[in-house]
Amino acid sequence: MPDRYTRRILDHIADRRYAPSTVQELVEELSIPEDQQDDFVSAIDELLEAKQVVRGTADTIALPPPGKDMIGTFRRHEKGFGFLVPDELTEHGDLFIPPGNVGDAMTGDKVKAKVIHEKGRGGGKSPYIGKIIEVLTRSDKQYSGTLLKKGSKYGVQVDGRIFNAPVLIRDVSAKNARPGDKVVIDLIQYPDDRGDGAVGVITEVLGEAGEPDVETLAVMRSAGLVERFPDDVMRQAREAARRLDDDIPADREDLTSEMICTIDPPDAKDYDDAISVTKLDGTKKGEPAWELGVHIADVAHYITPGSALDEEAYERANSTYLPRKVVPMLPEVLSNGVCSLMEGVNRFAKSCFITYDSLGNVLEQRFAKTVIRSAKRLTYIEAQALIEDDLRTAIKHCKAEQPKYSRALIQCLKRQDVLAKIIRKRRLGQGMIVLGLPAVDLVFDETGRVVDAQPEDDAFTHKIIEMFMVEANEAAARIFAELEVPMVRRVHADPDAHDMSDLKAFARVAGYNIPAKPSRMELQQLLESVRDKPAQHAVHMAVLKTLSKAEYSPELIGHFALASEHYTHFTSPIRRYPDFVVHRSLDVMLEHQQLKAGKKQPNAKQLGKALRDDERIPNEEQMREIGRHCSTKERNSESAERELRKYLVLELLSTKLGEDYPATVTGVTGQGIYLQIDQYLIDGFISLQDLPGAKFDRWQFNRNTGALVAQRSGRTITIGDRFPAARIASVDLARRQLELVIIDERQGRKLGQGKPKGKAKASGKPAKPAKTGKKPRREQGERDSKADGSNKPRRGRSDSAKKKAHARTIKLKKHRGRKRK
Q1: Which is more confident, 666 or 171?
Q2: Which parts form a coiled-coil structure per UniProt (predicted)?
Q3: DSSP for 750-810, written as a single string
Q4: What is the pLDDT of residue 789?
Q5: SS3 309
Q6: What is the three-state SS of 323-361?
Q7: pLDDT class for 646, splitting at 50, 70, 90?
Q8: Is the pLDDT of residue 756 over 80?
Q9: CA angle in degrees (0–180, nearest 5) for 425-774-462
């Protein structure tokens, strides 16, 4: 299976830290197991034959040098430079476009650049830079922002930091927009290299800037997210919803009398997975055994391939979950109606049945088209309470109309609890990576504004559902792998060898040594060694940063974090199109498996060939394109969610100027530190020159320890260090920027000797939580913790009070500066 190594080889060689290596050296660098080295060498040979890599001196392997021109997608930085991401991985990796060479290209544009070789360009940097000579295709991106008026001219301050100046608007009257409105614009003249000179036209007025619903619409427009479905799509969805029949079709198993239930968040509206667990008499050896049933809404039954409804689902690719709003992949008449596995009604499903031995090893598996009837709709905390025989808590968190729980239901939940723990133990033994990072839920008032943040609940029922969904996804991928049928998979490549040096430094600071190329088990041991210790947050975050981004592809790469050789997405067809592809392929497989009169069941070889020849299942290249499209859409949705979440948190912090919060150092580099406000999980970067004491002392990065050291005072800053007071100095909502002032009194001593100031620009990336079931640190739930120990919250202050608080902060900084002088 050479394909499983192709991208990993290209990514490794394309890294700027790569030194040309021989094939044997690559085997060692990438820690290829001995029994897989033949496949690895075959992958190298295929890349050489395709001229995606070349042989250099001393028989080393490298990417071919770029040609005179390069075509790809442009990413623009606010400081005037950018990067061209080439269409082909064979072309030297990303090409740096320096300021002055960007022209009017914008992020997302397809561009053509001249490749320039700069002699003497070293320091680990590529000798090549680019100059954009043509914009081939515009991204047609819309921008949202606030309409401003200065003198007689109107401009739109676009949200974010792409534009240095407002976009000029010449005809404001066309849409009756007024200053202070949030508007959507199209560009008719693009900005120059400095980000100035853009001209736009207003296409939509959303409402008054700053209103939560308006800001939500603004993020949706910028991300190209459309809530409304076309008329023909809605017509087909309604027709599909009316096709529900209470009769049990002949080709479906009747499971309506089985004990099956759903467990979901309290605000869930679409229930696409249900669970049943049966304890069997035992295996052939007499040991106890279990049968897990994972029952998934059969969305494919209602949507005709190639229809307008199908094409719209493919275009959206996934549901987008914004704070307080969902932009669904499918019309709600399907997703919240006939396809939702509601309590007490018959629903069509695809069921995955997996039999386990007493240690959680898979004995056998099968898939079937079924009809189920969920006996109960439960929330996570409600189900956990029933497992623990806490009826009062269960009733408190019940969302169903009647909080009645049968003995059979409770027994089923307790069996789920036991089996999930058995499976989890097995997966941990296989090397599954479990990160313990804090996660918070935002708390909103009736107007939609954020008023607080609370740690996510840590009920083990989250783990129960997670384990069962992982098992079903793995079973679906395993079937198509055994049949040698291409399938869109959820792949998660092994960490890049180049990134392990950074992790090694993080671990060393925490007092742990790991090998230069740690295995999955060694990473797991590192994570466990710091769990529930002060270094946990920093080390677990460092491991997360070394992990690659999971995406969709037919390549046989496996899933590193889950320690899974074969993995796909099967369990959420209501909200993910790749699951939809898997369901349709299962339909074709089940059809070919049907016994016909006088004929035997086809064996694996016969079945695999039949499926590969069946045009209803996309071929490998089509699967690859589906994977690329769905991965792009997924990243877009995640970006929109982060953008809106960032705005809402910053809006809350704009009402708390002058207030102090505990913060944790999550990263240390030679340029500065990353600081995260614990309560809201919003990060900021503080450069060396803005660190406390930088005016009178020099902070220097120690590569051996991974710490910043003040040369005169000897004070240090390392990952995991906590500042009891990071003060909110200012918030720029339009540019999504946050400025913090470090007020540190660790052990009665101030950090550094200069001005007590550190500005942090919000990265806008609240830590993406890994749901581990571990309880977040206690301080994650604290509110408004002051340097003097007061915990009284200050809220709802007037604008004048905010200005006074800010003025006191500035005065305090000036006073301390004079005192030190």
Answers
A1: 171
A2: none
A3: ESSSS------EE-----------PPPPGGGG--S--TTS------S--HHHHHHHHHHHH
A4: 30
A5: helix
A6: CCEEECCCCHHHHHHHCCCCECCEEEEEEEEEEECCCCC
A7: very high
A8: no
A9: 70
Contact predicate 675/666, CB 8 Å: yes
Residue with tokens 């935002």: 442
For 704-717, b where at least 16 C-beta lie within 10 A, e where not — what string? eebbbbbeeeebbb
- 318 beta partners: 576
| Number of helical H runs and strand E runs in the chain | 18, 36
Whether the Cβ atoms of residue 656 and residue 677 lie closer than 8 Å to each other: no
Domains of the chain in start order, with CATH, are 3-62 (1.10.10), 69-137 (2.40.50.140), 143-209 (2.40.50), 231-242+251-491+558-639 (no CATH), 497-547 (no CATH), 654-820 (2.40.50.140)
b vs e for 329-353, b when ≥16 Cβ sit within 10 Å of the residue's Cβ? bbbebbbbbbbbbbbeebbbbbbbb
* Mean predicted lDDT score pLDDT of the chain: 84
pLDDT of residue 762 exceeding 60, the answer is: no
Query: Which pLDDT value is given to residue 754?
Result: 33
- Count how many Cα atoms sit within 13 Å of the Cα of residue 693 in the half-sphere of its side chain: 21
**The length of the chain, given as a count of residues:** 821
Q: Is 744 helix (H, G, I), strand (E, B) or coil?
A: coil
Task: Kindly indicate the confidence band of residue 817, based on its pLDDT and cuts at 50, 70 and 90.
Answer: very low
Q: Do residues 335 and 218 make contact, with C-beta atoms less than 8 angstroms apart? A: no
Is the CB of residue 16 less than 8 Å from the CB of residue 125?
yes
Mean pLDDT of 458-465: 95
